[in-house]
Structure formats: C-alpha cells, structure tokens
Amino acid sequence: MKRREFIQLATVTSLAAATENISAKTPTFDNQFEFNEITIGELQAKMQNREFSAKEIASKYLARIKEIDGKLNSVIEQNPDALKIAESLDAERKSGKVRSPLHGIPILIKDNIDTADKMKTTAGSLALRDAPTPLQDAFIVKQLREAGAVILGKTNLSEWANFRSSHSSSGWSGRGGQTRNPYILDRNPCGSSSGTGSAISGNLAAIGIGTETDGSIICPSSTCGIVGIKPSLGLVSRNGIIPIAHSQDTAGPMCRTVTDAAILLGVLVGTDPNDSITAQAGKKGFKDYTKFLNKDGLRGKRIGVARQTFGKNDKIDAVIEPQLQVFKDGGATLIDVEFPTNGKFGDAEFDVLLYEFKADLNKYLTNRGGKHKTLGDLIKFNEENKAKEMPFFGQEIFLMAEKKADLNDRKYRLALQKSKLLTQIQGIDAVMDKNKLDAFIAPSGGVAWMTDLVNGDCGVFEGMTSIAAVAGYSSITVPAGFVQGLPCGLSIFGRAFSESTLISIAYAFEQMTKARKTPQFLPTYS
Questions:
Q1: 261-283 tens-digit pLDDT
Q2: 258-268 and 40-48 helices cross at what angle (nearest 10)?
Q3: Which terminal residue of the chain, N or C, has fewer Cβ atoms less than 10 Å from its own Cβ?
Q4: For the chain, what are the domain ranges?
Q5: Contact at 8 Å (CB) between 210 and 228?
Q6: Catalytic-labelled residue, pool 165, 194, 201, 216
Q7: Is the pLDDT of residue 378 over 70?
Q8: Burial of 322 by CB count in 10 Å (0-12 exposed, 13-18 middle, 19+ buried)?
C-alpha cells in the first residue's frame, strides 16, 4: 500500500457546502490589515514603545478572525480568556518584567493539543466535544504560557490528524467543517495542520503551531505559503498531544518567516519528565535558534538535491529549478543525489502507524477520561453518528488499526525496525555520509488542489516529506514561488537534531528570495 493511499491528509465538508456560491462572490473585506505580515520583533517593538498593548494587539487579531475567518474556516474555537491573559501580561511589562520574545504575542494552536482551560481539545471529532477538560496543559502549552504567549484559540484540522480514512480530503473535521486555502478559496490548504497553515498565512495570528506524523506540518505550510519546521523526534515533548504514533509524532512552528519560526522553536524545546524521549533535548537542542539566522548561511555548505522528486510536475520544476542557482550564488555546493531506499518503506511505516495509533490513542483516551476510552468506542460512536461524522468518507483506517495486536507483536517490532533502517541508516545517514553533506533540498510538494469531497485529495504531488518524518529527523519548508497564484515550498532536511544547520540554510535562502506574498483570498480562478 502506497503512503498516499492511507494518509492522504483529511477531508472536506461537501463541495457544495465548502464553496457554496463562493465563485459568484468577491471578498467583502479590506485586506489592508495593519498587522499584515508583522513579525514577533515588530510586535515587541510596538509594545515596548507603548504604541500598542498586548491586549490591544490580541483584540485586533480577534477582530480579524471575526472578519476573515468566515472565508477560511480555520479557527475552530477562540479562547474566551485571551484578552484577560493579555491584560495581565501588560501589567507585567509595565512593572518591568518581560518573560521572553513571545511576551504578549498572539498564537493559534492546533485542536489536538491539550489545554486545561475553557477551550476544548477534540482532534476535530464530535466524539470528544463533551469530553472532560484535560487535567493539565500539554507540556508545550505550559512552555508557551510561561514564555508569555497569548493563546488566541485553536485551529481546525483534518479530523484525527487524518488517520481515519484513506478517502478523505484535507482540512475537514466533523466538529470544524472545511478549512480553505487563503490564496484561492476553492483550493485545499492540505493537512492535517490545515487550520494553522491557513490562519497564519491569512494573518489571523502572529504565529502558530501544528503537529506532524508524516507531512502534516510541511504540506500545509508549503501549500499555504508559510514556513514550517518539523523538529527532530525528541526535541519537543509529545505529552498532552492527541497521538497517531509515538515513533513519528511531533509538534512544530508554523510561521510567516524563518526568524519567527526559530524564535518559537526555541520556546518549544525542552526536557519533559513525562516524555522520556526528550531526555536529551536540553543537550541536543537550543533555547535560542536565532543565533543561527545568518544571511551568509549557504556559504561552504554541501547540499544534496533530491532528484527523485524532480521530473514529476513540470510546473513545480519550473519554480524550483531556478532557485537552485540561489544556493550556488550563496556559496553552496550542490550535489545531485538519490535515496536507494525511497519508496521501499511505506508499507512498514503504515503498519507501524496502525499498531501505535491503537496503543497510543487508547492510552490517551483512558487518561483523558470521559465516555469514549478506546478506539473501539470511537468506531462505535462514528457508526452511531454516521450522518454527522461520516457523511463523506468512512473509518477504514480506524477499523484496520483496531484489528492490530499490542506493541509486543513481532510483526510490529519488525516493521518498526525496517522503517527506521531504511530511512535512517540506509537512507538519510548513508547518503549524507557518502556525499559529505550538510543537508538536502527538494520540492516540498505540489500546489493546492481543488477541494473535492467526491474523490478526496486528488492531483496531489508528494515531495520528500516521508523519509525525514519516518526517520524522526528534522525538516523545514520555506516559500519558494508560485504556480498560477498558488504557493509552493522548498524543503530542507537532514539528520536528527540538525535544526541549527537547517535554519541557517533556510534563512539565507529566504533572505535571498523573499518569495512569500500576502494572500488575497480570491474566491476562485477568474
């Protein structure tokens, strides 16, 4: 089974409902938002100069959400305490206390990340709409609060991070409906971090957080024209995040600039006593990645061009090929490479995800409390609420996972060993060692396809997200250009805990190209 057959990314409300009369309308709002494309540093300067308070900034973003999000449908829920939190942070600033570069900065987070507040955590499913509030914040939420970030709300996603059906269309959830791409509204935002990608690109918050198992940060970031960082496994805690698979899951920044993504990543990094895989995060990661923001970051680098992703889409090639010269102009040496194991680990990966999904989700649901405590309970709920939860696609992945044994099963252990061997030792590590590389580059994927409920995600062109995701290694996508008004990204990836190198390369490329453009929320192609 090929990867696209099982993890296509999520689904959409009915095409009629998702795009009802939209092609006949023009946007009724003014897109000259005063905080369009504003950065963390610029917002900090405005607060420091008393031009705006954190409460005023949060208020303006909440008004922006009210004005714009009827078009995007990216925010699943707003935080009723956002303004009160911002006001308390203003009082701290007035007393001389500034917690971090995120002090007073508005952020949106994906609705599979626990918050012990008045917001829900549902993974987009109606099954968790009435579940008990998590007993505590996810570890990364705790870090955000301690850093002084203002959580404005939660973003829609591909339900269950798109691990329910192989026939889904990205960006749909039973609770949230269909999220749309901010560049052209009848196009898909990709997923599963669809809402974060669309909202941050559309300037509904300063910064955002998504989660990824395989492509769920990189794809929506690329398709929505922003920067996304998928951290190495073990750099960021998974504690308090509704899981797919512990051997691949991670949260990461989704921002409009590499600088903002680097700032946010530093806040997320940390050793969590309740997530043993982060034991070395303090030694292998950094609390300040901005020191690697070097305009000369390409000079002297040896970078592998993953040629297996070229030649599949002429329009993407026409954008990415000329950008290779940017790397050369910046002083990098490019070496064409191929991965001998590419395409050979998909079946093993899928098997691992099925096993781990059942085990990890059952554990999460049991700890969360509430009516639904197992995957089997969710399957039953979906059947009993088919009209609302399964109007467009089913739950065949749920059913496949439910049939799996526990994690002591020999088939699971062999699949895990194979997937890691082919992506790590015989994959990324082998090619980097052979060619003495610092990193790889490749197209992040294709451009946004039309949202299509009947066929699900169609016309999707994959980049090279899977090999880094399955390996648990780091990757970044940066805006690279446009195809007929739709953005496409360039991925930069490498070994585990190579975020500092990748950020340096990504920043230098970003500064030389300035490829991002503010979305215009076009209803459809004219």
A1: 999 999 999 999 999 999 999 99
A2: 80
A3: C
A4: 3-27+35-513
A5: yes
A6: 216
A7: yes
A8: exposed
The Cα 443–Cα 465 span in angstroms is 9
**What is the distance between the alpha carbons of residues 382 and 120, in angstroms, rounded to a whole number?**
19
Angle at 396 between CA 469 and CA 343, to 5 degrees: 35
Check 173, 192, 474, 504 and give the catalytic one.
192
CA distance 228 to 206: 14
Per-residue pLDDT at 15: 33
Q: Which of 46, 55, 71, 110 is catalytic?
A: 110
Query: How far is Cα 245 from Cα 419, in angstroms, rounded to an integer?
Result: 13
Give percent above pLDDT 90 in the chain. 90
Length of the chain (residues): 526
Q: Which CATH architecture has domain 3-27+35-513?
A: Alpha-Beta Complex (3.90)
Tokens at 142, concatenated: 């705790």
Active site residue 388: no
Best CA proximity match to 125, nearest among 390, 357, 404: 390
Q: What are phi and psi of 28, to 5 degrees?
A: -100, 5
404 belongs to the catalytic site:
no
Q: Is residue 88 annotated as part of the catalytic site, yes or no?
A: no
pLDDT for the residue numbered 525: 79
Tokens encoding 401: 């996972």
